[in-house]
Design a protein that fits this description.
CATH topology of the largest domain in chain A: Fumarylacetoacetate hydrolase, domain 2
Strand content of chain A: 25-35%
Distance between the termini of chain A: 52 Å
Oligomer: homodimer
CATH superfamily of the largest domain in chain A: Fumarylacetoacetase-like, C-terminal domain
Largest sheet of chain A: 8 strands, mixed
Structural class of chain A: alpha+beta
Shape of chain A: globular
């Protein structure tokens, strides 16, 4: 692996070696939010590097969001990556390394920064692109014979998610109030959710926009994707059960969706490209894939009760997905739907064949029947004070390409409507 | 009715008398988009009036969107309305009327302006709040015994719509491509939609934002609503049928949603407040309404084939809704979903008891079986070149409060994916 002169960047266990260079938005006590890349145990301040004339053109790195840069497209993304690699590599040029004053300004220890939402989320769409999850959750709700709806093997099924509550890792998540079926089954009651769940997902971030009326091939869609994030699609199963017909999930998913602070680019994930799940049926030609657009990335999730110890509750892999990210984007644009720089496409829950790889508690407990063991306890669903942490990485021979943490703590519900 | 000195404002048939003062965003050949109010056959340029010192405080009227003003809240909205009324009333003050040069700059003939989306749409949620429509469409799909899902009488059902394709009246609508069940029923094909439909809706526009985790009473929600627009939720019924289970509509609704250029305020609609549809069952207390939050507004829809004559195909009324706009907003925020200035809440299709009042072709043709007669033809669903025009108004004794036109022409589908 090519080495960096920045501290921590060559450690085997770091998420952020020179080959990664994920993009995010950070602030310090001295200065407000701006764009940066993670390198070892530091953030390289892209606004400072741009101001020093070390980066090409105007990429909008002094803004508190990556949207401007993301809209510039693959040629510019590659140009910036190449330049950053030269600045940060041991065998690179000395333009940054040789300027101690600039290093002091532009390399900020990760321990001293606060991370923000990396981009303004212009739209959030949540797919259902994992076959094992679709089969498991369909089996729990409708039985194994009707688990997959007839459309499922033919197209990536999705619903529009709620954009206003996509938040960055570390944001607490308040247990939602909602209508749920009452204990006697004779009518709904207003209640805090009692079946609060996670969903382990992989989020694709659209960079290059398309206009209303435009469509995309899968190869074009691949080029338009800027990068990827970890995504926890928090879900209230009791609210979802009662509200979900006929129009799909709404309040059950609208209270929070957490993403990792770092967007890992396609270029960084290139070594981990792989084939996806075998096809049940041939897809229509508009979903044809001229290359392998899936990834071999490990995703782990830990649950830590307040004051307790963390237990790993999920270990899964993004290669368990059935539809690739560019297939999601191609299908999304098929009707002529305009796609914007900042659109977030969740994969849907990623479950593998083993129980330990099931990506949500609904599946792990098989509908709330079989508790998940914890270090010093067990869970059917989340309790107040629980912190859920997702991590993810591609494993190279002597390095990993990671996403940082994607976590959130559950706060107790508000006591009443209107009591803010 | 209080009279205005501006041309056309006192005509019985104008949508825009002094009592209306709807807000929008307009441009001229000489100057880019900025905020205005319609008065008679003119637009009063709010940026120009603010620059002349005739409006209170900084309302952001020089921006190409109303969001800043909408977020300022009811006290400021009322203050601006009172000031505009004084400037434009026959018996008002002379600050504008007496300044010929300012009149020349600040009163622009409607015939000379282009209208834009009135606000940046931060979120679009489409409800299903009309009982007759829910019953009709449920009957067509599932039969009359299972027409309403059990949750329907207890809460406003909704799905998140697609924000990127909410467009202003006059924007052409390209017929979408999509997956539909093939003619033999043995698998899906890629095809332009053959069942392109309208949905006559009423849109509420959120002004005052709420934070993630906050909830709202219905009375609070009412105060947070800035105003209302006409809304046509274009729908592809064949795509919807195939994709709709289990997660609800997605591509079938994502290609376009058209709104009127003018946002009519709560204050302007005050004379038309009324009760809604009788309740099937008592609602949970969080949906209690301390006042009448429905409106008596006529909504008409005309269909005009290319080169042909327009036929009125729908005449309905917003009082046919079952859930009021503040009930929609209260339910939306119930889980702690953050609501933003610029969130658009569609009512869902508004149908009355008579066939002529059914608000979409699916209902009017009862699932595509019984054509709707046109002047010189008939329709099951929309054809290329058809223009659909929605209008709406509250009828006073000698005036009406209207929304202007909400229209769009159907363009032929793209020939292929990737052929832009």
């Amino acid at each position: 692996m090519r080495r960096s002169w920045v501290g921590g960047a060559n450690a085997a266990e770091t998420d952020f070696p020179l080959a990664n260079l994920p993009f995010g938005v950070f602030s310090t006590t001295a200065e407000g939010p701006r764009c940066g890349v993670a390198i070892g145990d530091h953030v390289a301040d892209l606004a400072a590097l741009a101001a020093a004339g070390l980066l090409p053109g105007d990429c909008g790195f002094d803004a508190p969001a990556l949207n401007t840069f993301m809209a510039l497209g693959p040629a510019r993304w590659d140009e910036v990556r190449t330049r950053l690699t030269a600045l940060l590599a041991e065998d690179g040029d000395g333009a940054l390394r040789g300027d101690a004053a600039l290093c002091g300004r532009a390399l900020v220890p990760l321990a001293e920064v606060a991370m923000h939402l990396p981009f303004r989320v212009t739209g959030y769409t949540d797919f259902y692109a994992g076959r094992q999850h679709a089969f498991n959750s369909g089996s729990i709700l409708r039985g194994p014979d009707n688990a997959l709806t007839p459309n499922w093997p033919h197209m990536p099924i999705a619903y529009n998610g709620r954009t206003s509550t996509v938040v960055v890792s570390g944001t607490p998540v308040r247990r939602p109030l909602g209508q749920v079926m009452g204990p006697d089954g004779d009518g709904p009651v207003l209640s805090p959710s009692r079946r609060l769940d996670i969903e382990v997902e992989f989020g694709a971030v659209v960079g290059v926009p398309t206009r209303m009326g435009d469509t995309l091939t899968v190869a074009e869609a691949w080029e338009n994707i800027f990068g990827f994030v970890l995504l926890n699609d928090w879900s209230a199963r009791d609210i979802q059960r009662w509200e979900g017909q006929p129009l799909g999930p709404f309040q059950a998913k609208a209270f929070a969706t957490t993403i990792s602070p770092w967007v890992v680019t396609r270029a960084a994930l290139e070594p981990f490209r792989t084939k996806g799940w075998p096809r049940d049926k041939a897809l229509l030609p508009y979903l044809d894939e001229p290359a392998d657009y899936f990834f071999d990335l490990t995703l782990e999730t830990h649950l830590c009760p307040k004051g307790g110890a963390a237990t790993r509750i999920v270990s899964t892999n993004t290669r368990h997905l059935y539809y690739s990210a560019p297939q999601l984007l191609t299908h999304h644009a098929l009707c002529g739907c305009a796609m914007n720089a900042g659109d977030l496409l969740g994969s849907g829950t990623i479950s593998g064949p083993e129980k330990s790889s099931f990506g949500c508690l609904l599946e792990q407990t098989w509908g709330g029947r079989d508790p998940v063991p914890l270090d010093g306890g067990e869970r059917l669903f989340l309790e107040d004070g629980d912190t859920v942490t997702m991590t993810g990485w591609g494993q190279g021979e002597d390095y990993r390409i990671g996403f940082g943490r994607c976590d959130g703590e559950i706060l107790p519900a508000r006591p009443n409507v209107g009591a803010n």
